[in-house]
Amino acid sequence: MSARGTWAVHSAEAPPKSLGPVRLLLADHDPLARKAVREAMATRDDVVVVGEAANSNDSIAVVLEHAPDIVLLDLDLPPAGGIAATAQLIGIAPMVRVVLFSVRDDEELGLAGLQAGAAGFLSKDIDMSALARALRSVAGGEAAVSRRMALQAIIRLRSMASQLTAMRPVRSPLTNRQWEVLDLLAEGRSVNAIAKQLRVSTDTVRGHVRMLMRGLGARTTAEAVRMAERLRSGSAA
To answer: N or C terminus of the chain: which is more exposed, having fewer CB within 10 Å?
Structure first.
């Protein structure tokens, strides 16, 4: 992603960071990826790396110890992936901003990450100078996503109102997209068939399935379908 392809959107959810270098945590399972960012930021005075982590548990420990402004978080961070780690970090440290860092340009995963609480979704192909600018923008209370992803978010918001009533109970641990995947699973659709219908990758569908099962506390997809029906009917799970 080039600097030109990044769209910053003002966010009112957290106050902008005061003047000073951005305190950055690198959370990536790949030590070479961490090294590349760390060495690039070492040449700058506006971003300082305060810690590194190779998994979500270590990320939590570093966040609690060093209180970074931003966590640059690998989308594939073990053990459960970057989206789950984002929700976990935001739940523990609401003021930290998470920017997902990915080798995959997957809009669905990006939107899922934003929905989980991320303030940005950037490609690992981004120029390091552009990355530093994006991090400073996020620290200043903005979001950093591609223009195309911003458009997809707008489209999703427009369609949500008409879909929400049919797909989600008033109180639900699942997102609108997860309900959509769950409905297709209830119809007996395979992961490949769901991916084709929703025009996303099979990895994206599997990610939604993992997240919806975790949200419902289900051990199997069949159990998730049964629990979802109870939620719809208003019965106790």
So the answer is: C
Largest CA distance in the chain: 58
pLDDT of residue 39: 97
Query: Would you tell me which CATH number, out of the four given (1.10.357.10, 1.10.10.10, 2.40.128.110, 3.40.50.2300), belongs to the domain 168-232?
Result: 1.10.10.10
Query: Which of 61-65, 159-163, 173-177, 223-227 has the weakest average pLDDT?
Result: 159-163
- Rounded to whole angstroms, the Cα distance separating 169 from 191 reads 24
Query: Which residues are CB-contacts of 47 (< 8 A; sequence separation ≥ 6)?
Result: 21, 22, 24, 41, 132, 135, 136
Strand 22-27 relative to strand 47-53: parallel, antiparallel, unpaired?
Answer: parallel
Radius of gyration of the chain from its Cα atoms, rounded to whole angstroms: 18
